[in-house]
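Below sits my pick:
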Amino acid sequence: MNNYHRYINLPFNIKKPSVIKTTDNIDDNIKKGGCGLPECVERCQFGSITACYDKSFWDSIQDDLKENENNIQSFLDNYNLFSDNPLYFWTKPGDNLHIHVDNNKETSYFKKDRKPLDFIDDHAKINITWGPIESKMQWWTADDNAIQMGEEKDDEGRIWNILYAKEKDCTLVYEKSINRPSLVNGGRLHSVINPSKIEGRLTQSFNIVNKSKLETIKFNEALNIFSEYVI
C-alpha cells in the first residue's frame, strides 16, 4: 500500500465555500513576492492563500469555512489530537504548484536549527478540496543535494522555512485525484497539477498534532488512528 494518500469518510457534512467559486479569478488578491522566496516574485509557486495572498482575502475564506475547521477540531479531539495551523491553497486553471514539503508546525515547539532533511518527516494532514476531478496531488523523491530550503516571513514577522525542489531533479512516485476529503502525507515532497482550463482548485488543509506530546502525527500512525474512517 502507498505511504502518501487515503480517502477518509469524515463523520460530518462538509461546508462548501461561498465567498469564492472555483471558476473565479483571484489573482488580484496576490501579494507580489508574497512568501519572500525568489521563485515567487512574479507568481506564487506554492499557491498558499495563507502566505501569498492579501490577509483580508484569506481571512474571508477562513471565516467562510470555519464550520469545517470547527468540525475537524471536534473530530480530532476525540483522539487527543488537534490542528494548530490550518492552511489554504489555490491552484489556478492550467497551473501547478511547486514541489515542496509542508512546514506545518507551530514555531513554539519545533527545533529552530533544522537541516533540510529534518523536514522529511511523513507528517499527516487532512485535506478538503474543491475543484476539477482531473486535478491531482503528486508525490516525488529526489537526491538529498537537490532539496533546497528557503525562508518566508509571515504578517507577524515570524520566519518559516520552506523545503522545495525543482521538477527536473525529482522522480514522480505517486499521484491521486484529491476530489474528496483525504488523509495525505505532507511530510514528503509533493505538488499539485490542475489541467482544467476553466476551474481552479481550493484546498483547506489541516495538520494533526498530538495534544500530549505536541508532535505531528505520522502518516502510518494516522492510518491506524482513523482506521474506521479510512477507505
Q: What stands out?
A: The helical segments are 49-52, 55-64, 66-77, 219-225. The longest strand covers residues 170-177. Residues 66-77 form the longest helix (12 residues). Residues 5-15+30-225 form one domain.
